[in-house]
């Protein structure tokens, strides 16, 4: 399978626990994005990487959220001290950078659904 | 403020019928407009991407139009099938690939 892969697909945790989601992008894609989506809403941008560099992180929802892409391949999104309001679908996407045309198509994974009890 | 508004919020049609979904945006500058299909509980899948100079683009039974002057786009679905039941999201890119402005989507239900 050469698509974007996310794990786990579902995570149920108790409030206050830490959770980590993993995203494996399409192998030749150098850009990787994290989004959050709540029911009935469009995806909300969180952060993105070009190779291993995190180029935008101001949209991360709070300092409890952090993301890494240590070797420019897979990425992790960690939420510390989870709250009930963190319950959502966390989506990962990847694309090839095309700075000239800026029409890079995003390929999304199936998402990781988080439920905080 | 950059915004993308979609209408209707939801739509129910019978299998085999056509339908048109609307998208109005107030995004500046403008780079491109995208339509995504999202099945319940799944990630979005790209249907079309249109730049400023393109005013129509087709992908099978899906045809998107763009009027950059009025800042409106539509997605027309021909001969609907049960598998078309999904949310359809309009997305506008201002000037950088990561800064996409997402609409809330139109939830389409196809009934047999």
If you had to describe this structure to a student in words, what would you say it looks like?
The complex is a heterodimer of chains A (117) and B (112). The model of chain A has no long low-confidence stretch (mean pLDDT 89). In chain A, 0% of the residues lie in helices and 47% in strands. In chain A, the strands form two sheets. In chain A, strands 2, 4, 5, 6, 9, 10 and 11 form a seven-stranded mixed sheet that branches. A four-stranded antiparallel sheet of chain A has the order 1-3-8-7, with no helix packed on it. Chain A starts with a strand and ends with a strand. Chain A has 117 residues and is mostly beta strands. In chain A, strand 5 and strand 6 form a beta hairpin. Chain A has no helices and eleven strands. Chain B is globular. In chain B, a hairpin with a 6-residue loop joins strand 4 and strand 5. In chain B, the strands form two sheets. In chain B, strands 2, 4, 5, 9, 10 and 11 form a six-stranded mixed sheet that branches. A five-stranded antiparallel sheet of chain B has the order 1-3-8-7-6, with no helix packed on it. Chain B is an all-beta fold and 112 residues long. The mean pLDDT of chain B is 93. Helix content of chain B is 0%, strand content 57%. At the A-B interface, strand 5, strand 9 and strand 10 of A face strand 5 and strand 9 of B.
